[in-house]
Amino acid sequence: MSHVALGESLILGIESSCDETAAAVVRNGRDVLSDVVSTQHELHERYKGVVPEIASRAHVERILPVIREALDRASITLPALSAVAVGHRPGLIGSLLVGTSAAKALAWSAGKPFIAVDHVVAHLFAGLLEREPCAFPALGLVVSGGHTSLFLVRDPLHLELLGRTIDDAIGEAYDKAATMLGLGYPGGPLVDALAQRGNDRFVDFPTAWLGRDAEGERRLDVSFSGLKTALLYAVRGVPERKPKGTPRGEPPRYARSAADLSETERADLAASFQRAAVHGVLRVVERALDRVPVRTLLVGGGASANSRLRTELSALATARSLDLRLPAMNWCLDNAAMIAGYAHHRLCGGQIDSLDVCPQPLSVLASTAAR
Ligand code: KG4
Ligand code: ZN
Fold it and tell me: Who's near 138: CB < 8 A, 6+ residues apart?
């Protein structure tokens, strides 16, 4: 087991992968001197999802004021920085281009090292901000709007993917559940709040069971599509059988809609959904902990703000004497402090990037299962 030594650094982090424009200044991968996030939720709300073109335009308008504010709040000027870091993957390509171009331009003009950071990996290290260093190896769980992945984190620079969702990410499932229940966007926090008032045994929703892999090992992957369909049918009823000769593409016909739910039913369905979704995640975490000897559990991503997931992970950590690193609530969602925080580890390991590094829509690390 090793502790990673913290060298001296002062890093400007930039984040623009989806619908948050963010910049932060972090010292030594730990002390957050400033943390500015400009969210675009209000621009995407009526579409119930992020519209890529609207997101890129908003990033272009906001990126420089956000960076300026982060530097001002930290009372730092560019020459004082050790490096400029950016989340360059995964994400919406137009959005990533804005942050990556800004970071490269600043790094080049100030003559500072440029560090490109994988956003999914950075989420894992948000629980180290403003805290003492943790021991490695660790188990890493990312639960976000785009990813649900488990990693063996040998040290900050060596991660192995152990499992991932085979369909939707958990945050995405929450967002779709919110739409099915007639709630707004982003749905995760709304379903979570409603679930806290409901009966979680109202419906016994299924948790996917993915069995064993080719080597006979229990799989560490998860799936949320069956749960989503089960919720849809619980809200609207099983769709009517289509009569013979119905044209292809004709949408299914349901007997009910979300508008027919009473407030109690809506809360009970949200609670039942939440119970099954969190149970699905907890089960693979426990399975992974049985396989890999770790004393630390790193957790990150938007859904790590979920009340039930936090409570259940805390109970698990206590039962197994684990050092659980749940991020503070403001660092669960997309932010730039986690980008600067993780960049510190890359800088200490001599991992500086060329200005030729391009943004990428996918995280190679988080998308390919090591099965
Ligand atoms: O990490 P994040 O900000 O963006 C990505 O990297 O994808 O995660 C956003 C996701 C959304 O899907 C949102 O609904 C979900 O995190 N989320 C939650 C909660 N708060 C945010 N999901 C469940 N419970 C919450 N309390
Ligand atoms: Zn994220």
Answer: 153, 294, 295, 296, 297, 298, 325
